[in-house]
């Protein structure tokens, strides 16, 4: 049950990482996880929230990791990675439609047999009609991440927020895998993300969100109910916006002082 009677957001961009779709990692896509995602999106879509999605492809192929292997150049590797995102998009579309949610896949590549080409006005019309729109193939250009694609599409369709669903609870002040004292941050600013080198999004993506005043919420995809909470605007994970936290600002100031001395 969602805590708010009236959702905070009217139109959202939900970014789902490819690695998160693999679940426990025993297979490329965990169908139980995609069905769980679909059911939560369905419940929120019926409340009138307009939902667009960008999905990664790292569960199949991550271009940056393969560049240089067997003579594969970075641009070609990135194109393979972008095609991997389309496989995830089609799988998510099937999951959503199986629970009664009309869904359209739009891709930055032209793939007329399986998806529509990305057309901004058509995407917005689908959203207005209550359809979930999944954007595949990233931006269609190498050297850009799917996080950047999410920020770009969010700005283009006038989304009010980017919701980034990952395998972690939110944004930490340092790597929790290397430091047991790592602290989960509940609110940071765009500036603090860049200054502290926080692992939220790549700099291009976070800059796009900053320039267009689009807040970002980073949360754990694997916790039941989190997608519904994020879509409805409940406070979970980490919020990134212009304001940030005074506590983090003080940590940032002390860090700057240490660098000066």
Automatic annotation (TrEMBL):
All copies of domain Aspartate/glutamate/uridylate kinase, residue ranges: 11-220
Keyword Signal in annotation: no
GO terms of molecular function: ATP binding; UMP kinase activity
Entry's Gene Ontology cellular component terms: chloroplast stroma
Compartment(s): Cytoplasm
Keyword list, A-Z: ATP-binding, Cytoplasm, Kinase, Nucleotide-binding, Pyrimidine biosynthesis, Transferase
Gene3D superfamilies noted in UniProt: Acetylglutamate kinase-like
Annotated pathway: Pyrimidine metabolism; CTP biosynthesis via de novo pathway; UDP from UMP (UMPK route): step 1/1
Pfam families recorded: AA_kinase
The keyword Nucleotide-binding is annotated on this UniProt entry: yes
EC number of this enzyme: 2.7.4.22
Biological processes annotated in GO: 'de novo' CTP biosynthetic process; UDP biosynthetic process
SUPFAM superfamilies, A to Z: Carbamate kinase-like (SSF53633)
NCBIfam families, alphabetized: pyrH_bact
Protein name: Uridylate kinase
Organism: Selaginella moellendorffii
């Amino acid at each position: 049950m969602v805590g708010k009677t009236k959702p905070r957001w009217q139109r959202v961009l939900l970014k789902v990482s490819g690695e998160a779709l693999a679940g426990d990692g025993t297979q490329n896509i965990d169908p139980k996880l995609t069905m769980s995602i679909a059911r939560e999106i369905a419940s929120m879509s019926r409340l009138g929230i307009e939902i667009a999605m960008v999905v990664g492809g790292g569960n199949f192929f991550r271009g940056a990791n393969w560049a240089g292997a067997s003579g594969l150049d970075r641009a070609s590797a990135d194109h393979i990675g972008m095609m991997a995102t389309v496989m995830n998009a089609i799988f998510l579309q099937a999951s959503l439609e199986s629970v009664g949610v009309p869904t359209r896949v739009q891709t930055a590549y032209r793939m007329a047999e399986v998806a529509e080409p990305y057309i901004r006005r058509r995407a917005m019309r689908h959203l207005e009609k209550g359809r979930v729109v999944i954007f595949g193939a990233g931006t269609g250009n190498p050297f850009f991440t799917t996080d950047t694609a999410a920020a770009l599409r969010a700005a283009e369709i006038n989304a009010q927020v980017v919701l980034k669903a990952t395998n972690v609870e939110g944004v930490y002040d340092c790597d929790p895998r290397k430091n047991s004292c790592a602290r989960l941050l509940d609110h940071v600013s765009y500036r603090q993300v860049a200054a502290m080198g926080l692992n939220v999004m790549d700099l291009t993506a976070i800059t796009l969100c900053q320039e267009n005043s689009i807040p970002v919420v980073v949360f754990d995809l694997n916790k039941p109910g989190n997608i519904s909470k994020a879509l409805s605007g409940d406070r979970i994970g980490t919020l990134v916006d212009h304001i940030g936290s005074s506590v983090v600002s003080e940590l940032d100031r002390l860090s700057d002082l240490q660098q000066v001395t």
